[in-house]
Amino acid sequence: MEITTAMVKELREATGAGVLDCRKALETTGGDFEAAVAYLREKGLAEAAKKVDRTAREGVIEAYIHHGSRVGVILELNCETDFVARTEQFRALAHDLALHIAFANPRYLSRDRVPPEVVEEERRIYRTQALEEGKPENVVDRIVQGKLEKFYQSVCLLEQAFIKDEDRTVEQVLKEHTALLGENIVVRRFARYELGESL
Fold first, then answer.
1. CA dihedral (105, 107, 111, 113) positive or negative
2. Contact 83/72 with Cβ under 8 angstroms?
3. Residue of 40, 59, 58, 36 whose CA lies nearest to 48
4. Could you give the CA distance from residue 152 to residue 106 in angstroms, rounded to a whole number?
5. Which of 31, 33, 49, 60 lies 20 to 30 Å from 70 when distance is taken between CA atoms?
6. What pLDDT, in 10s, does the model give residues 69-106?
7. Domain total for the chain?
């Protein structure tokens, strides 16, 4: 049976597992959706979602200075225990996320942290652009919503495509590490500095 992108997407949305894991699960189970969910549960990937409500107060502060000392990032990555915080996988994840922030320059952690006035201004700009391009009124709202989604994907860290694997978002990478390490892992906060930029 051919495994389609739509099948992978559906399984991904249901379990929170990565694209490659979902494809492998579907291939292993011959395209059987329920069996693929069970397969992912056995692998621990689908369990990551259950850990989200657990408190993460341990972790690391990761500092990254890009070559040439023109860009710097400070990131707080949290987990539940200091045991996990000391693991090589957790520290590598913190470093990769700081590297991602230096490169991708997110402005906000997630879409719920984007100030409402910023969203409204973006919405206004997209609406004006669509109307000036002569788009029919009945499709303008869909166009605006589509552009807003792209805006969130470009400025929100959790929604950005991960620089080391653009098939996954940063949020999916965090979920996969939650499954791998068995603890809730969250980005608490970050700051990015670029030489000469205005505050």
1. positive
2. no
3. 40
4. 10
5. 60
6. 999 999 999 998 889 999 999 999 999 999 999 999 99
7. 3
For the residues 141-167, what does the mean pLDDT come to? 94
Average pLDDT over residues 60-74: 93
The whole-number pLDDT of residue 85 equals: 92
For residues 68 and 144, membership in a common domain is answered with no
Give the mean model confidence (pLDDT) for residues 13-32.
82
Confirm if 7 and 26 have CB atoms less than 8 A apart: yes
Q: Which amino acid is at 80?
A: E
Q: Are residues 90 and 174 in the same domain?
A: yes
Q: What is the pTM of this model?
A: 0.70
Same domain, 64 and 121: no
Q: Are residues 32 and 127 in the same domain?
A: no
Q: Which pair of structure tokens corresponds to residue 15?
A: 């379990």
Q: Which residues contact 167 (CB under 8 A, 6 or more apart)?
A: 18, 19, 20, 161
10/39 same-domain check: yes
In a domain, 169, yes or no: yes
Q: Which residue segment(s) compose the domain that 32 sits in?
A: 5-43
